[in-house]
Amino acid sequence: MAVEKTILMDGAGVKRALTRIAHEILERNRGVEDVVLVGIRSGGAFLADGIAEQISIIEGEPVQVGAVDITLYRDDCAGQLPHAPVGNTAIPFSLEAKKVILVDDVLYTGRTIRAAMDALMDFGRPSCIQLAVLIDRGHRELPIRADFVGRNVPTSLKENVQVVFDENNQPLEVVLEK
Amino acid sequence: MAEFKHKHIIALRDLSKDDIEMLLSSAESLREINSRDIKKVPTLRGKTIINLFYEASTRTRTSFEIAGKRLSADTVNITTSSSSATKGETLSDTALNLLAMKPDIIVMRHSVSGSHYYLADKVNCSIINAGDGAHEHPSQGLLDLLTMKDKFGRLDGLKVAIVGDITHSRVARSNIQGLTKMGSSVFLAGPPTMMPPGVERLGNVTVCSSMKEAIQDADVVMMLRIQQERQGKTLMPNAREYSRYFGLNPENLKLAKPNAMVMHPGPINRGVEMSSSTVDGDQSWILKQVENGVAVRMSMLYHVCGGEIE
């Protein structure tokens, strides 16, 4: 049976959502002071760059961006580790007493976010962590919620939501596969 | 994407180019952990690693132990002087007894070439070779490749000179296997008594008649230790004469490319295979090799835990 695909958002829609999230982050934190962004590889890292760009346009001030790879913090390692290479974690600044905005593309079970928060804690003690996601598709398995959401998409467990990026890591579209 | 599917890492000969690339790529990512304030990730929590060393080692054993600990594994060290081997227990009995304690990985160094293959047949945990006789030393080979890649950004097309006691060197063998797979060309030099016959058949390997010929225009000059514990007394007249023909000094280093890197697997016999000024000189990458050792061994431990039997 062929996979049925529905386009939930196009590239421009994703950009608009990121712009709104950027505004909301600034509103909540009253500016960019002590705010840093950390994207979860790979999709979240690209979106974090997009949000950072919007924030610097709005505020006229750059914001620091890092990327975290959660492979080493997965909770399914006890059985079999993944065979793929470990991705690069790059947080070239201190998180001590910073307001960290963790960015991911799709929020689902919450296990990735749990792993990413553990990774962040190993880099210091942030004053707070806030979560920004492009899509919240529900089905949480851990008590985690997003502070900033691009769009809530009710899904069934059989469906799959994917944020597609082009070769320049710019968001192309958001696809729901049945 | 390619997958790493080996349960054991015994020799670079057994690994494909993709396998080696993956081990190096993960090592590059894992390296970041070593510069954190909290140098630990939870990845191998609950895994037990036994470092079983039948031969002396400082760097390799410490490096494997630190690598395991930074990935949160429990590491136990056994050295011959403190083990039942001194009471006459055979390797296979020792291994079966250790196995009864349910380790996930045994990292072993042994003086007999191929002993790891023998052991791998008998146990159900992963085996990593930390050096077997004059066969291979894969973690050293990989860390050397990583160090060269750090400097040149590639391995393809490099000219690498390896000088010294090739016959007794497992470091040379692992490097030859790794480098030729990655597209480098290897030039060997050493006294004829220390040059194994037929070594050219291993791939893009040239045996040179003099050290000068080998290091001429080389990108990398790798010096090997004279292994006095492995060779008889007849292979070379004395250290001074060896040094004159096969020692690296600032003069003959000029034959290599101006930005050539100098490497040595350690421990160094200063004044024999290398003059002190080349060991401590600007072109020396020897301490970077040691630093990369931890990252490469973390990568090896990580990937054998994810691997499955072929």
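qc> Chain B has two domains: 12-137+292-306, 138-289.
qc> done
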